[in-house]
Amino acid sequence: xxxxxxxxxxxxxxxxxxxxxxxxxxxxxxxxxxxxxxxxxxxxxxxxxxxxxxxxxxxxxxxxxxxxxxxxxxxxxxxxxxxxxxxxxxxxxxxxxxxxxxxxxxxxxxxxxxxxxxxxxxxxxxxxxxxxxxxxxxxxxxxxxxxxxxxxxxxxxxxxxxxxxxxxxxxxxxxxxxxxxxxxxxxxxxxxxxxxxxxxxxxxxxxxxxxxxxxxxxxxxxxxxxxxxxxxxxxxxxxxxxxxxxxxxxxxxxxxxxxxxxxxxxxxxxxxxxxxxxxxxxxxxxxxxxxxxxxxxxxxxxxxxxxxxxxxxxxxxxxxxxxxxxxxxxxxxxxxxxxxxxxxx
Length: 345
Description:
Layout: E1 2-3, E2 7-9, E3 15-17, E4 25-26, E5 28-30, E6 34-36, H1 37-46, H2 51-59, E7 64-66, H3 67-78, H4 84-97, E8 101-104, E9 114-116, E10 126-136, E11 142-151, E12 156-163, E13 168-173, E14 185-186, E15 195-199, E16 206-211, E17 221-224, E18 234-237, E19 242-244, E20 247-255, E21 261-268, E22 276-279, E23 300-301, E24 306-308, E25 311-318, E26 322-329, H5 330-337
Parallel strand pairs: 4-9
Antiparallel strand pairs: 1-9, 2-3, 5-8, 6-7, 8-13, 10-11, 11-12, 12-13, 14-15, 15-16, 16-17, 18-20, 19-20, 20-21, 21-22, 23-25, 24-25, 25-26
Helix pairs in contact: 3-4
């Protein structure tokens, strides 16, 4: 599930997390999506649903259709089947349709009361690694997006959540060759008229993607590969890049010996983020002796950071059992990233 917390940062950069209340609020689920047949059937095929079933369903649907129409087509077709295995394939299509929905929380709740629970079958084993970003549109208006991973116990599905007020949320899957695996993170604005996304489609390297459509991601281009010993197994992002006067600051995670996770940092060109200006040779944050034990040992992980009054503040998880914060002076970090020792050869 996804939960929210309030926190205060004082002038000395001390952080106080405000305790949550005694109640939680579960959102009302609204299923009023209109589906694009081509994208929907492609996502169903990516989810390993029987192709014969998809072909049959596709013939009975218009190019755009709503939830009630799809549900009727699926139930009518399912009732004609004798095989339980075949019936299950029709159920899977319906489960996929449930991944497109809206949710709405009561207006009399505090943000710490609101919990986004798994809704579709594709989320039944978890909603993981939500990477929130404040996105500024071309007209200056603001919307908050979050990429996250839906997990059903066997397969993962990258999804997108969006809201303007943290009461009403719209949720949908992400499509395309680049919307595979985990670690998708959206840039906080368009670059040269296109949406830009980080991904890690192969599980080892960071990729960069551009798209005209927020939910369709193709043509990923490799951006970073493991370079230093502490990240030699894999490198990934720790949330959306942060815009600075010197470039896009990306907090990364690297996996090294003994599956030890550490946080690093890289700097990319503002106009062309395919250009890596610098990367820290040593970890920015690494688990100390008190942080190494837990449900997933040796792991220090983050899904986002903010800059406040000249300091980079990174909330992070400790071995999947609790959370903490790290603070880094931005001037020191940027000087290091722009130095010759961090230059990418």
